[in-house]
Amino acid sequence: MPYEPPTHTVERSLRATTGAKVVAGVDEVGRGAWAGPVTVCAAVTGLRRPPEGLTDSKLLTPKRRTALAAQLEEWVTAHALGHSSPQEIDELGMTAALRLAACRALDALPVRPDAIILDGKHDYLGDPWRVRTVIKGDQSCVVVAAASVIAKVRRDAMMAELGADHADFGFCDNAGYPSPVHRAALEVLGPTPHHRLSWSYLDALPRWQHLKRARSAPEALALEAGGQLGFEF
Which ranges form a coiled coil (predicted)? Predict the structure, then answer.
């Protein structure tokens, strides 16, 4: 399906209205997974023309996404990744875990951004960051699309490494997201040390329900609830 390439429109607007000189794009991956960290990439690109074919990582084939990520890591002005572990997600809840991962990524950049373009409609960063949220920013904004692709490829590689010791779960294919293979392995083997134990998938696994952790920071999480039924990775 054809798609419009991302632009620098939002970044130019931020620069003009706020005086920001360094604008970072921030995107996450792993929010709806049953296993593995949530990963956030912060990227700075400036206003240069991006590599051909840049768009939201979910619109790219794995082969194209991997090749593009390698290009982007050389092309961007700067980028950094931050992660929140399954244990931190269980303890803090997803919103706080996302903020922790994002702050880790932003703090790891060699220069502090003056403004941030954040994919989605919810600002999970807040003060002291100056944030502009953009729905489908990973499709429409160059700097967010770049962060989206890098985050996806790097987390997928991380999950493939974790899956080497847990081959039955198919992490190399599903990256810790719900899938028939993943569900079947959970029913027989139970959660690995990389699983989120406050997630609702355990409600459907009577043999392993005793492992479920109560979330210390209750929150409505549509993706987590959807993860029990849908398969998206």
Answer: none
**pLDDT digit string (tens) for 193-219?**
999 999 999 999 999 999 999 876 545
Euclidean distance between CA atoms 219 and 200, whole angstroms: 13
* Beta-carbon contacts of residue 143 (< 8 Å; ≥ 6 apart): 8, 11, 23, 24, 25, 43, 44, 45, 117
Q: What H or E segment, with its residue span, contains residue 24?
A: strand 23-29
- What lies within 8 Å, CB to CB, of 45 at 6+ separation is 25, 75, 76, 77, 142, 143, 146
Secondary structure element (H or E) that encloses residue 28, with its range: strand 23-29
**How sure is the predictor about 222, in pLDDT bands with cuts at 50, 70 and 90?**
very low
Annotated binding-site residue? 28: yes
168 known ligand binder: no
> Which residue blocks in 113-232 are alpha helix, DSSP H?
137-140, 142-163, 171-174, 180-189, 222-226
pLDDT tens digits along 141-196: 999 999 999 999 999 999 999 999 999 999 999 999 999 999 999 999 999 999 99
Beta strands in 45-174 (DSSP E): 78-84, 115-119, 131-134
For the chain, give the number of residues.
233
